[in-house]
Write a structure and sequence with these properties.
Elements lengths: L2 H22 L4 H10 L30 H35 L4 H10 L8 H7 L16 E2 L4 H9 L5 E3 L8 H4 L2 H10 L3 H8 L2 E2 L8 H4 L4 H4 L9 E6 L2 H7 L19 E6 L2 E2 L12 E7 L2 E6 L11 E5 L4 E4 L5 E6 L5 E7 L2
Parallel strand pairs: 1-2
Antiparallel strand pairs: 2-10, 3-4, 4-5, 5-12, 6-11, 7-10, 7-12, 8-9, 8-11
Length: 359
């Protein structure tokens, strides 16, 4: 794991600890988010469609029999005390963040330039997303000690057990009749995007590119790597990237080689987006949680990828982390909006994954 990845994971775990500690100190989870978001005037979520809401409500606590303004006034000191408690709990965390940034030789001048050039002081990032994240239903992970694997599963069983429950699953050999298993490669994707003018620009303007632990700044730059690096030859820098596709021409070509997984319920509608992840042995995605509203499937076209699934902090008392390796030809079902997750690419052939969301 790189130094930057270690710093990020440390900060993520510290934020999760703070959130849990604040709740244990008497603040409701909804109140924690309310305090945090109220201090971020003008905050808007960017593009994901998820709202900063709490299904359990964020109303202030009321006293028994309070039916007049005097009773309402009695509530305010309690709220202020809660706010002070949360603020003092936050101070050591902020000091810790500053210390970590200092140790990581963070460029303070670059940070200040970013602040001056950003219209919103606090952008939509992981820390805000975590404070605004609705509580997960812990039934999704209760008594789960390993990810169940099926050689075959019908639509009804999948619907009842996994489709919308948040409980992950592996469906083995589910891509057996896909031509993607022979067609998809680094050179296939590179040539496909180069075939259609403007396809790289669409990713820049309308979709997402994830460089992970590489120095690439765009998908086009990644596809310009040398053939030796693409083939992961000895002495070449390792790499792992991900992206979503917004070009309909590319989508048409991609979907000639794979189809909707056979076990997805017929009433479920798949997303128009295709997600691709590709790279060589080593760290994949760092620990994170997604913000895309829907559960997803991801098919392992080549190589092997190990997933570490970590339950959200509100479920720590009844759930445990699980780890599973997805082999070539397998499809993993996981609600990445509820499970914290990180991935590791196993030695061997290049790992290629394609996936989509479904409702």
């Amino acid at each position: 794991m790189t130094k930057a990845a270690k710093v990020k994971e440390q900060l993520v775990r510290e934020l999760i600890r703070l959130k849990r500690q604040s709740c244990q100190s008497g603040l409701k989870s909804g109140d924690v988010r309310q305090v945090f978001l109220n201090s971020c005037a003008g905050f808007q979520s960017s593009g994901s469609g998820r709202q900063a809401s709490d299904d359990h409500g964020t109303d202030l606590p009321s006293r028994k029999g309070s039916a007049n303004s005097s009773d309402t006034r009695k509530v305010r000191p309690i709220w202020r005390r809660r706010l002070v408690t949360f603020t003092f709990a936050l101070i050591p965390v902020l000091l810790g963040v500053l210390y970590v940034c200092h140790r990581a030789e963070y460029d303070w001048e670059d940070f200040m330039n970013d602040v001056r050039e950003t219209p919103c002081i606090i952008e939509n990032n992981f820390f805000i997303m975590e404070m605004a994240r609705p509580l997960a239903p812990c039934a999704m992970c209760k008594n789960l000690t390993k990810v169940p694997t099926y050689n075959l599963i019908d639509k009804e069983e999948f619907l009842n057990k996994h489709a919308y429950s948040g409980r992950p699953a592996i469906i083995s050999g589910a891509t057996a009749n896909w031509t993607a298993m022979e067609k998809f490669s680094f050179h296939f994707f590179r040539d496909l995007y180069r075939k259609y003018p403007g396809s790289f620009d669409k990713i820049e303007d309308e979709c997402q590119f994830f460089p992970y632990n590489t120095d690439f700044t765009s998908l086009e730059e990644a596809f310009n790597m040398s053939d030796d690096q693409a083939a992961m030859k000895e002495g070449e820098a390792g790499w792992y990237i991900g992206w979503s596709n917004c070009d309909q021409r590319v989508q048409t070509e991609l979907r000639k080689h794979y189809e909707r997984p056979y076990f997805i319920p017929p009433t479920s509608e798949s997303s128009a987006l295709d997600w691709m992840f590709m790279g060589g042995p080593g760290p994949g995605a760092d620990i994170h949680i997604d913000n895309v509203d829907k559960p997803s499937w991801q098919a392992q076209i080549s190589g092997k990828k190990t997933w570490q699934l970590i339950p959200p902090p509100e479920c720590e008392d009844v759930c445990q982390a699980v780890e599973v390796t997805v082999n070539k030809g397998d499809i993993i079902i996981v609600d990445t909006n509820q499970w914290y997750h990180k991935t590791t690419i196993q030695p061997g052939e290049i790992s290629i994954t394609i996936g989509s969301e479904y409702d």
